Amino acid sequence: MARPRRSDDTRQLLVEEGAAGFLVNGYHGTGIKQVLDAVGVPKGSFYNYFDSKEAFGQAVIECHSQCIQRNLAAAFGSDADPIAGLRVFFERLTAEFAENDYTGGCLIVNLGAELEGSTVLRESLSAAFRAWRDRVAEALRAAQELGTIRADIPATELADLLIEAWEGAVVRMKIDRTLEPLHKCLARLLDDYFRP
User: Fold this and answer.
1) The domain that contains 61 carries what CATH number?
2) Could you tell me if residue 3 is inside a domain?
3) Are 64 and 19 spatial neighbours (Cβ–Cβ below 8 Å)?
4) Domain total in the chain
5) What pLDDT shows up at residue 63?
6) According to DSSP H, which parts of 30-81 are helical?
């Protein structure tokens, strides 16, 4: 039996609603019915868009990864200073946390803590994290070439350090309900440790 034609717009709405649900309630705490109801899609239609909840989770992770890439590209814009672009990217994330009363966080990290048992989703999360890290490393490598970032440590290692420290600061922000850990993270790394 052939499946009905998929609507890309409806599929995207389901993915966006899934991302919102996963961010607040986690993967296991977000029911498919809840997502379908929020988008106004009949319950039996889920499998017209996704083969399983795991495939749905993959789509949400891929969408989030693409969003990070778009936000990084927008932050860099035409600015020739890669460190200024990184600051813009992380400052925009900080502003989102402030607007959302310290809620949210990074979908990749939130799901990573929850989905360690699913090989398929763990691999999707790992790919999303690598894509983020690689784009940040590209900016840091450019800064190394300009002489504004230390060159004795590979850019990929600096990117790992920056993102891992940032995610730890996000956890601390949520606990203490303050943006101070985020500001300290960027200042200590971009203004101090990463400098030549």
Assistant:
1) 1.10.357.10
2) no
3) yes
4) 1
5) 93
6) 32-39, 46-49, 53-76
Residue 127 in domain: yes
Q: Find the helix packing angle between 180-188 and 82-99, rounded to 10°.
A: 170
Flag whether 102 is in a domain. yes
End-to-end CA distance of the chain: 63
Closest CA to 105 of 195, 12, 175, 157: 175
Cα separation, 144 vs 154, whole angstroms: 9
Question: Tens digits of per-residue pLDDT, 186-196?
Answer: 999 999 999 99
Q: Would you say residue 2 lies in a domain? A: no
Its domain, for residue 56, covers 8-193
Q: Please tell me the distance from the alpha carbon of residue 82 to that of residue 138, in angstroms, as a whole number.
A: 9
CA distance 182 to 163: 11
Whole-model pTM?
A: 0.86
